[in-house]
Each structure stands twice: as C-alpha cells, then as structure tokens.
Amino acid sequence: MKAGVVFAKNDIRYVDIDRPEISDDEVLIKVAYTGICGSDVPRVNGDACHFFPNVLGHEFSGTVVEVGSNVTHLEVGDRVAGVPLVPCMECDDCLKGNYSLCKHYSFIGSRQFGSFAEYVKVPARNAVKFDDEVTFEQGAFFEPATVALHGLRRLDYKSGKKVAVLGGGTIGMFTAQFAKIFGAQEVVVFDILDERLDLARRLGLEGINTSKEGWKEEAMALTDGKGFDFVYETAGNVATIKLVFELCANKGQACLIGTPTKELVFTEEQWEMINRKEMILTGSWMSYSPAFPGDEWTLVAHYFKTGQLKFDDSFIFRKMPLEHISDAFEMYKTRGLVKGKILIDSRQTA
Fold it and tell me: Rounded to whole angstroms, how far apart are CA atoms 23 and 66?
C-alpha cells in the first residue's frame, strides 16, 4: 500500500510499504480522511518523532475491510472513526478507568503506525461506528470533538449557567457547542480574530474580540458583573490562560483543555484570584472514560448525526491527496498560513 512515511526531520515521503496484517482482535480500516493534528507538525518539521521510519496520523475515518476472528461488534463495510489511544488495561489508572493517564500506553499514529496511509490496523475497540448521516470528513474530527466533550465534563458542569470558552479554534468551537447542547444559558467564545467570532455566531454562540477596546466590560455586562460560572481555556496560549482567572465568577469552575507551549509566569494578584474567588481549577487530558473508549465517542457520533453538533466548512482549510502529504507539512512552515484543519485524503490521487 501507499503511505506517508517519516524518515527523518523534514523528510516525509509518499512510498510503498507492506499492508498491515491483523490479529484475531483487530480490524483493518481503509482510510478515508486523516486530519493533521498540531502534534503531528513537530513530529515531521521538528524533533518530536518517536522513531524512524514512522507513519503518523491519528484523527481518521474510514471503512472496515477486514475483521479478526474474535471481533463480533464490527463488520466489513462499517463506517468508523479511529480511536488512537491504546492503553495497557492493566495498570492502576486503567483499572480505575483513567485510560488517558496510563503510563504504559501505545498511540496509533505516533508510537505505532497510523493513518497517513491507505490502510491502518487497530484493536477492534479502537474503531467507533457512525451512521450514514455522518460524513467521513466529520469522522476525521471525532478525536478533537471528543477532547472538547471530555474537557467540558471535567468540571461539575450544570445547565442553566453562563459559559466562557477562551480560544476559537476547532476544539474551542466544539467545547462551546457542547456547552450549549447540554443546556448553557449563554456561551461566549473569546478570540482575537473576527473570522473565528463570525463562525461562533454562525454556530449560534456569542463572540467577543479580546483585542478590541472595552471587551472586558462587554463580557462582564453579559454576566451582570459576576463573571462566568464555567470557563474553558482551549488555546494553550499564555494570554488566554491568564484570562481564566479574570473571567471566572466567585465559586466558579475552570478547566484548562489547551496545551501550553511556553513557560507561564503569574503575578501574585492573578494567582491569588484562585483563593479570593474560591474557584476550582483543573485540567483535561485526551478524551477517554469507561467503558473504553467512553461515551465521549458515542455521543459525538450521536450529535453529529442529529445535527446538534454543527460542522462548518471552515473547519477544513484544505483537502489534499495522500501523495501530496509532504506539501501539506510544508504549509505549516509559513506562520499563519494554515487556518483550520488540513485533511489528507487516502482514497484519491492528484
């Protein structure tokens, strides 16, 4: 089969490799689309790849074409989204259902061959079925959508409250939509780009530009000066992380979903807000719960099917055939060029 193989830093090539052979507990998936994740970029353009040669790709959809002899819940022809985490299922964390915290895990598309290929094999429990009403494009967005839902539920989330989402990227938009689906009184997305805030409004959300004068007064006015009951940071940006403390209400709750990439320094006044507001602050990592992989995955399939979880064309920056995967990663070398997700199409040639 054909695959996009990473041989070294800045060296990803479209080459022939062996098609995977499955075990009795695995399925083989003919890949439709794979999204390029932010974590893939340093594995190709930087020094973060675990080994060479490697096949990345973990946000994928496709069709089951072969099932192992022990597999009973999947059939050839099923449309599926890929679940990338492969926990050990034996450590204390796994036995408690905290699969994301497993220290002995593998991961499809980084620690074992992934979906930048025509075919990928996965354990049968790592394939989540979705109905015909859900597109393969949406299937490739299951992983980021489940990250959003898992993060939402890391707090003691209750309906009828006011929610702030800091960062209007893909995960931010999914987080905001899930907050609304689960009954928020009002959901406000904060970003510095008007096009992202326009998208938020198309999705039925409020939007505030934090680069414009008077934004904080506008935000606090929406909460009668009290601040937001639930605050979700999804960008991993120093500025948005610091805003968490300012926007959270007394006795409010906040979750850091975004992954920071720089060292953070807080003033005493900023950090003291945790004490003075008696706010709850926690983090979120990946998207799994018992029974593996968790209802984050089945709920994403459900809400995509019903249309309550809206999918906007602007989520996709570009679709590119697998044979042009090297060109796709070159785009990330131009700062600000890629706005949205690049989907690699494993079914099409140029």
Answer: 10
Instruction: Assess contact for 19 and 119: CB atoms under 8 A.
Output: yes
pTM for the whole structure: 0.95
Mapped onto helix, strand or coil, the DSSP state of residue 46 is coil
Two tokens at 3?
């695959």
- Measured between alpha carbons, how far is 250 from 84 in angstroms, rounded to an integer? 38
Residue 286 tokens, joined: 């990946």
Q: Give the angle subtended at the CA of 266 by the CAs of 264 and 267, to the nearest 5°.
A: 155
Report the Cα 241 to chain-centroid distance in Å.
18
Q: Give the amino acid at 193.
A: L
Q: Which helix (H) or strand (E) holds 286?
A: none
Q: Are 287 and 294 in contact (CB under 8 A)?
A: yes
Distance, in Å, from the CA atom of 139 to the CA atom of 13, rounded to the nearest integer, reads: 25
Mean pLDDT of 295-321: 97
Peptide bond into 184 cis (omega under 30): no
User: What gap in Å lies between CA 215 and CA 172, rounded to an integer?
Assistant: 19
At 48, is the secondary structure helix, strand, or coil? coil
- In 211-329, DSSP assigns E strands to 228-233, 248-256, 280-283, 316-321
Q: What is the pLDDT of residues 26-64, one digit of tens each?
A: 999 999 999 999 999 999 999 999 999 999 999 999 999
SS3 at position 289: coil
Residue 100, helix vs strand vs coil: helix
Residue closest to 17 by CA, chosen among 113, 108, 109: 113
- Asked if residues 12 and 2 have their Cβ atoms less than 8 Å apart, the reply is no
Question: How many other CB atoms are there within 10 angstroms of residue 189's CB atom?
Answer: 29
